[in-house]
Amino acid sequence: MATMIEENGPSTHEQSEVSPWAQARQKLEGLLNKNMKIRMTDGRTLVGLFLCTDRDCNVILGSAQEFLKSTDTFSQGEPRVLGLAMIPGHHVVSIEVEADSLEDTQGFGSNRC
């Protein structure tokens, strides 16, 4: 029988069942320090490293750059460097993880000890 330390203290488990909360947490932890592209309700797009989130779905990006919504389909314009940025959860339209960032992750989505 193995003893595991959980958020509520030590407990003993005989089964290897993982709660949905633990699975979601593992997925989020697997995305830490990965490049993300976040589209916002006002048309802006922020690209940066995923550093953290909270229960209200606010997102913190590091080394963030802002891309404005372009009226001209041929030019995206120069990105504006923001550095550390907090995006309120209610302004997030979509979140994409850049593919090259996921290739570096080994065992993404699998159970880790």
TrEMBL record:
UniProt domain Sm: residue ranges: 23-101
Gene3D superfamilies: 2.30.30.100
GO cellular component, one term: NatC complex
Listed SUPFAM superfamilies: Sm-like ribonucleoproteins
SMART domains (alphabetical): Sm (SM00651)
Positions of the UniProt region annotated as Disordered: 1-21
GO molecular function annotation: RNA binding
Family: Belongs to the snRNP Sm proteins family.
Entry protein name: N-alpha-acetyltransferase 38, NatC auxiliary subunit
